[in-house]
Amino acid sequence: MLEIHAVSRHFEGLAALNYVNLTVPDVKAVGLIGPNGAGKTTLLNCISGLDHPSAGEIIFNGIKIHNKSPHRITALGISRTYQNIRLFNDMSTLENVIIGLHRHGRSTLLHSLAAWPYHWREEKQLRRQAVDLLERFQLASVSKVRAGNLSYGDQRRLEMARALATRPTLILLDEPTAGMNAVETRELGEQILRLPAEGISVLVVEHDMALIGQVCDEVFVLNFGEVIMHGTPQAVKQDPAVVEAYLGKEEYHDEPA
Which residues contact 172 (CB under 8 A, 6 or more apart)? Predict the structure, then answer.
C-alpha cells in the first residue's frame, strides 16, 4: 500500500530524515516510534503533502505522491490526525465531521442555491453518516457543542472521527492519545484496532509503548532521522539500540546497585 524509498528531508543542511525506507502493508497497523526530534512528524508531513522530501520517493497504491498537494493526497485515500489538534473550533462537533464527509458529496454550490431536492437528500444522508461516526466515538451527546469547548479527550476523538469521515484507506495518526488518561487511551486503542478489519491501514506515531503493543503488527524506530530498527513490538522493545535511543547511552549501561 504505502512504500517509502530512500526518503530524505533537509532543512538548511540539517537532515531531519536521512534515507528512510518504510512500508505499510494493506490492512495492517504499523507503528513509528522514536525520541523527540527523531523526524516522525516530518515523515508524516511528507506523506500527507504538508511537506515534500528533498530526495527519495513515496508511493501509495502504485502512485508517486511525494510531490502532490495535500488535497490530492486526501483524494487518493490518505487522511491524518495531528500532534497539535486541528479542529474548526467555532463550528459544532457535528459540523466538523460533516466537513470531512463532504469530500464524497456530489452536490455543487449551484445545486444548493437552486435548492435541488437531490442536494437536500444528500445533505440528510451525510448528516446521518456524521451522527454514526459521533456515536462510534461516544460524541453524539455533544454534537451541537462548539469543538473549541470540548474536553481535551473529546477533541482527540473528534479529530479521529473527522479523519475517518474522508473514508480513507490509510490513516496517519500523530500521537493520537497524547494527553489522554489510561482509560481514554485504551478506548481509543480499541478504535484503532478496528480499522484494519474495516479495510483501513494505519501508520501511528506514539510514545506510549503499551498502545503500540496493543494495536501494531510491526514497528519502525527512527532516531536522528534514520531507521535503526524494524520488527514486532516485542522485539523492538527489547532491542538495545532502541533502549539506548530512548534512555541515552549512560542510562542504558548503568547497572543496578
Answer: 44, 47, 48, 78, 79, 80, 81, 203, 204, 205
1-77+169-257 and 86-167: identical CATH topology: yes
pLDDT digits (tens, 9 = 90+) for 106-149: 544 444 444 555 555 767 888 899 999 999 999 999 999 999 99
Domain 86-167 has CATH 3.50.50.60: no
User: What's the CATH number for 1-77+169-257?
Assistant: 3.40.50.300
Instruction: Report the chain's C-alpha Rg in angstroms.
Output: 20
User: Distance between CA atoms of 102 and 113, rounded to whole angstroms?
Assistant: 16
Is the pTM higher than 0.90? Answer: no
- Written as one letter, the residue type at 148 is G
Rounded Cα distance between 255 and 226, Å, is 28
